[in-house]
């Protein structure tokens, strides 16, 4: 692992991946000398932290600082990203990567029970010998005995119901010597995995208010104008417990991103110019605060992966100069000043007794505050050439503006990647996704264009399409639809599962059929999500309750609605051509 701290090694790994991206993914330095700046955010997974076998894997990278105005939302049709701030793109990319990981597990099919796949891999040099990333790696061999390096099957052996540690490593293990039940959600993150987020600047919103104030020529908080009171007196009274870190229960409008510095602990909009049209996208601080309770698993990944304790963010890594301990304790913490402190000790559970609920054990949500840990500012400035220029007394201020391009990168599924071991950095040599986006769509397309080619893989429509593909790979006793590959995959499952211990004879099949019905036949995105919640599929019902409770504690959470009434037909190119023809 070397002498460098975990924070420094994660930062170095992220920057090495970003440096390898194509020029189109990076901000521009103009001939005039003016330059663009952009925030970067990344998700890094750590397996076996603090052990000789520790492995770091960068799975997503994103840059961005823009979001859509509220008037643009109803034009999106599921194909446009509402929020292109780096932190939010990184989380969406992480969930896309998880879905691809699930798909890869299912697509690998059935292997002999004791089959081992040997890869000749390229790993990074041991950090004990060389702390630099990107040097020529060493060669070694590794045996892989499970379908994913990061995700396991959940299952419940009927003969050993109390063994909570049981996991399935590949699809064929659904039918081993003991009778098993397919759990739902079917997957979970491996238990020795931790999730870290690295960013080059503080999240917008409450966690950066003190930094914003300090950067003003006059850091005195602005005078606060009278705010409208909430007409819902019951809601106000139910939360009037003296929580001074949460004043937003008494307001009816979201605060602008940088307005009213004296109001702290408030839910805010994304920051924008004073003359810009308003947005209903909440700040990154607010969205990250919610993730501390609902986990990093968003829809639809939460339908397939259980919200285990390690599905929550372990720590947020930021440059030391970008951390205000007071602000972070208030925005994210559960201490005396924390705006989520009343959630301490609360737990939301699905008991799994209902046929339509989760199968394979109780699913729990709880408040898991992440830590905010520093990375040396000098290291970040050395590795990140696209930070916002600082005003230095006595020096001429450099011209700069925020970039309008967002870059998104994700690693390939772990079954196709190459990893190091024994404390080595895991350099993923294959890429699953590399997109350049402007205004929430792929570069070269307009937001208003009807073609699905504009849609990012992270868009709602494309994520639903990916979920559909995954559902068609799951075994089913009565579903013979789908493309030839999916049908062949099911035939292989059914041949292997034709004994009395087969999945087709277990009571979980009706649940699987309901999940498939929701995903494959819903007429609109809104109907699909509502049906999943109504039926309590997986953790959906309890997750919805958690979301409502957290937003109530934060107060004044205004939903950014208007992009729900569309179906998967928006991804049909022929439909788009008909729309153009009518115009």
TrEMBL record:
Start and end of every A to I editase domain? 60-478
Residue ranges, compositional bias (Low complexity): 230-240, 477-488
**Biased segments, Polar residues type:** 162-180, 241-253
Among the GO molecular function terms of this UniProt record, one is: RNA binding
Q: Which InterPro entries match?
A: A_deamin, Tad1
Q: Where is this region: Disordered?
A: 161-180, 217-253, 477-504
Instruction: List the GO biological process terms.
Output: tRNA wobble adenosine to inosine editing
Q: How is this protein named in the record?
A: tRNA-specific adenosine deaminase 1
